Amino acid sequence: MMSDEAFVELLDKTYSGIVSDYMDRMQSASIAALYYRRSEVDNNYGKWEETDFKKWAETMYRAWLAGGKEALADAIEKYEQENENE
Known about the structure:
The protein is an all-alpha fold. It has two domains: 1-47; 49-86. It is 88% helix and 0% strand. The chain is built from two helices and no strands.
């Protein structure tokens, strides 16, 4: 029979595997959706101009790739503070 510690370790490994697979799939789906949407916009409206929204979206996406939820929350907070100062 499996000990409690071994069972908990098995659950942790299984959970980590599921979460890792889910995050990989979400990242792939997000990148594909962003690429598709940008291609669609480029085809319909020409190349994007440098706009505040584009810069903001790029900052949010890079923050998400770099550090996940915490970095994204920091980037959003910084953006909101910059808008309050203007």
